[in-house]
Amino acid sequence: MNRYTPTPPENFGGLPEEHSLYETSRAVIYPVPLDRTSAHKHGTCNGPAAILSASRQIELYDDELDAEPFKDIGIHTLAPIDTMDGTIEEVTTEIFTAGCSLLEDDKFPVALGGEHALTPPLVAAVAKKFRSLSVLQIDAHANLRDTHHGSSLSHACTMRRVLELCPAVQVGIRSLSIEEAQAIPHLRTKVYWARDIARAPLKSWIAKVLGDLSSNVYLTIDLDGFDPSIMPATSAPEPGGLDWHQVTSLIRAIGEHKKIVGMDVVELLPQPGQHACDRLAARLVYKCLGYAFCHA
Questions:
Q1: Is 0.90 surpassed by the pTM of this model?
Q2: What beta strand segments (E) does 129-257 contain?
Q3: Is the backbone of residue 143 left (phi > 0), alpha (psi -120 to 50) or beta?
Q4: How far apart are CA 45 and CA 208, in angstroms?
Q5: Residue 107: what are its φ and ψ, rounded to 5°?
Q6: At residue 37, does pLDDT exceed 90?
Q7: Which of 18, 240, 272, 277 is 20 to 30 A from 185, alpha carbon to alpha carbon?
Q8: Where are the domains of the chain?
């Protein structure tokens, strides 16, 4: 008699129904395969599917938290949004509307990108519900252009649009234009340059980041914030980035001292033979959920 190993459900983590129903889940994975304004390599539209696939291969016990976070949280996975039909303005509106719907249902939204242009409409949705909101951006790029290639909704304008909604703290930045550099002193953002925190003691700069954030925090993670030695699968890798423990230590501290109210992980550009990058992204999403909900 042949025996077959059943395949896991096609959701984040391959979770059984009892831990992935929408009605009982506190977190909702929201795939947004947006790839409309990239100025470098295209292909981030494949990022959400790669993260979901990799998530079904990772262990769901977290040794750091000594817990299986999915059991305490419940994680539902939505179908991907259609980002190819309509104008970028229409797609942005759809992202905002979906975010508002999740928040009205008291869900914790986790958007998987796709390019970074998906972040402002999600922050706008979160800002409708939460006062005292700030955004923590982990990224190589400042993304503070007012317009780029004739569009104010480009990925390169992401944080400029966010700052129209709430203050921000930007960590790991190491690539920007002269115009962005000149604008920073006049914008409500605090930048932690990668060069300044590369060898600084973790506790010292993380404490300063915490002091600059408000009580409610939206977390946006561009994977090129990591050093390309561990995360080469992005559209615009930059040398001199952050390592795994710097990023996770920062997010854990935020989970312990602030309220994380939503998040996105963007700009994975899957590459053949580099499945480690997909797994890093999936593990990072799961880690963030653990930090947000399960305090060891």
A1: yes
A2: 133-138, 168-173, 189-193, 216-222
A3: left
A4: 35
A5: -95, 155
A6: no
A7: 240
A8: 21-293
Owner of token pair 């605090």: 190
In Å, what is the CA distance from 231 to each residue of 68, 69, 225, 238, 269? 26, 25, 9, 10, 10
CB of 250 within 8 A of CB of 155? no
What distance in Å separates the CA atoms of residue 178 and residue 195, rounded to the nearest whole number?
Answer: 17
Q: Contact 225/241 with Cβ under 8 angstroms? A: yes
Q: Which amino acid is at 182?
A: Q
CA–CA separation, 159 vs 161, rounded Å?
5
Separation of alpha carbons 121 and 95, rounded Å: 6
Show the beta-strand stretches assigned E in 82-177.
108-113, 133-138, 168-173
Residue 5 has pLDDT above 70, yes or no: no
Tokens of 10: 């096609």
Query: Which residues in the chain belong to E strands, given as ranges?
Result: 27-32, 75-77, 108-113, 133-138, 168-173, 189-193, 216-222, 259-266
CATH 3.40.190.10 assigned to domain 21-293? The reply is no
Count each helix (H run) and each strand (E run) in the chain, helices first. Answer: 10, 8
pLDDT tens digits, residue range 180-195? 999 999 999 999 999 9
The CA radius of gyration of the chain, in Å to the nearest whole number, is 18
Distance CA 6, CA 8 (A): 6
Question: Tens digit of pLDDT for each residue in 272-288?
Answer: 988 999 999 999 999 99
Question: How many other β-carbons are positioned within 10 Å of the β-carbon of residue 212?
Answer: 15
Q: How long, in residues, is the chain?
A: 296
